[in-house]
């Protein structure tokens, strides 16, 4: 297993290096940050000064060299718009995105596995139909609409939770609830499908014949075998959350990485874009390695 | 296990949380549409920064009165005098302290201007001075002479754009602004909030608001909801869709003017009959109350009616499709290619319903015989079409643009939009250049008259562009506040103007 993780890590580092070069040159193709930072009637002299101050007047190869040299010291440079280290800006945003993603995904995993498994066990029954309908609605409902409706109902109408912000734990309820719905809908369907297939296996019939209790049958014998495809989907959903939840962040004023990345791209804040993409890529690579480890723990064939 | 009591208990607990979040007494919360990247005084002319800093933390030498009719008044300057030869003498207010406890004097003014014009920092307010060179001469601690080359008749007005910082302020963007204003910044948590608290040692009258917390939400429905639930007291920018409560919602001219910039150097726009036809083809009234908010006014000038020299005699171009067709036919008969493709270029999210406005404009133009199409572009691409140098080999282009001038004088608009050297000008007319230069150099009543003449010339004589609308803004103000937004609310939100009922 250590060999497999080592191979994965090397592949990830190579991918990061390629990404680093690509992002640098592609972001430079998108336009001149001076045009967006300065007002529309800024003089050409102001634009030239801005480019000089931020090294944007240098030949592109020279800019790339500085970028590589700085990166070796983990220095992504300063944000053009915020005038402070880009890495600090990105890490601050991650400090909000990570807990949001972790809490939401934990809830999704627990709820989807329990409800999906029970639905599969009672296939065709009322509970199964109810879970299927809820999961279908969850998987297809637009985040934006849900978020606005949630604010109207729970904040304005009932006054139970604040509309937005991050000040107290109460502020986290709506963002987490809205963010929960879509991945929950997807994962619960995959769990149900996977468990249906596992429950029809011979070893399950044997266990039933031997009088194993239902809860043990579902959550001990079958779940482990039904989890492999589920882990893949959970990994995809978690990766999407690590990229930031732009809509939820925008509506609830959540200062996460998704909105920061979009704003930085629109504003041509190259250093923040580079730092955000590299840190996100790193986080996703780490998560992929964790998923590989989970695979190998669940399936001895992969481990061997 | 019965979970019902726990569930309802939790819900009851939350109901007591939300009111606790609301502000009490004389503290207020302001919800803005975008977070500040910087809290730098020399960037205070940028609207999102100015709303927090301008005249709250940092003050200027002079100030334009947008609530009354006092015109230009003193703030940190008590008086000023034209000494001739481009030199103005400013007498500064005494016994003024910065929020760090240091005394305000003429050296601070000199240093503040040095920062703005330094090539080590990109300060936004520098743009208002264009190629004007300033020399600052400290006469005594409370008197300073400022010489402008070339002479700048509106130098006192320009002083309302430069915020004053202490002499010790480094020539780099600061994160803890120090100013002479009635408030000091006590907290800036990036991504969350900025907090200003009232200074008890402020030189002027103490404002009623003791503490202002600024939070940032980009979704207008959420901003409006925050005021409705009591989480915030003022949402300066909401959309017409949310502005439904007459008790709390205000609609007011916001100093933005929407127009179609015509590039006269590309066929067929060089022909005045084509430009007249273009103006006659547009049914301006049809937009108001449909895709644009009620209260929007038809524009006859690039600047709003509150600007010096605004000409009340000008009337919007009449909607007359038959006349437009006749002008086009006349031009075509003289060999003008009126069927040449015309691109209407608009910027996404430039103002509410910009795409619908663009679509309607294109339809109206095509109805009278133009060959127009719409291109929606994002901000950086829009800038390429809007500002010089314009792209080579371009077809005729009409750029839908929005221009803001709440500064009180047309000089901040007219050179850029109509002078042959202006960055966004589509005009190349020697007489327009002459009028702009004469108005810029004039003072007093003559200045107003010159601007008035220029407004008439570009609107009626050369039909330089298609002026469309003076826009309105919408704000929601909590019922406990005594505050009415003004034309300047786009640029600044002075906490000292806010009272309590």
Explain what the structure shows.
The complex is a heterodimer of chains A (304) and B (501). Chain A has helices spanning 2-28, 33-37, 44-53, 60-72, 86-121, 126-140, 143-157, 169-199, 202-209, 214-242, 246-252, 257-266, 270-298, 300-303. Chain A has 304 residues and is mainly α. Chain A has 2 domains: 2-71, no CATH class; 91-267, MetI-like fold (Orthogonal Bundle), CATH 1.10.3720. Chain A starts with a helix and ends with a helix. Chain B has 501 residues and is an alpha+beta fold. In chain B, 27% of the residues lie in helices and 24% in strands. Chain B has 12 helices and 19 strands. Chain B has helices spanning 4-21, 47-53, 106-117, 155-158, 220-229, 272-281, 321-333, 354-367, 379-386, 411-418, 430-441, 444-461, and strands at 27-32, 62-64, 72-74, 77-84, 87-92, 133-140, 143-149, 183-189, 193-198, 211-216, 234-238, 249-262, 297-298, 341-347, 371-377, 396-404, 466-477, 481-482, 499-500. In chain B, helix 6 runs antiparallel to helix 7 (321-333), helix 10 (411-418) runs antiparallel to helix 11 (430-441) and helix 11 runs antiparallel to helix 12. Residues 1-23 of chain B have low confidence and may be disordered. The chains are: A mainly alpha (304), B alpha+beta (501). Chains A and B meet through helix 2, helix 3, helix 5, helix 7 and helix 11 of A and helix 1, helix 5 and helix 9 of B.
Which CATH-level-2 architecture of the largest domain in chain A? Orthogonal Bundle
CATH superfamily of the largest domain in chain A: MetI-like
What portion of the residues of chain A fall into strands of 2 or more residues? under 5%
- Average pLDDT of chain A, rounded to a whole number, is 87
User: What is the 3D form of chain B?
Assistant: globular
The count of DSSP E runs of length 2 or more, i.e. the number of strands of chain B, is 19
- In round numbers, the mean pLDDT of chain B is 89
H/E topology pattern of chain A: HHHHHHHHHHHHHH
| Structural class by SSE content of chain B | alpha+beta
Report the count of strand segments of chain A: 0
Keywords (chain A): Cell membrane, Membrane, Transmembrane, Transmembrane helix, Transport
Domain ABC transmembrane type-1 (chain A): 94-291
Pfam family, one (chain A): BPD_transp_1
Family (chain A): Belongs to the binding-protein-dependent transport system permease family.
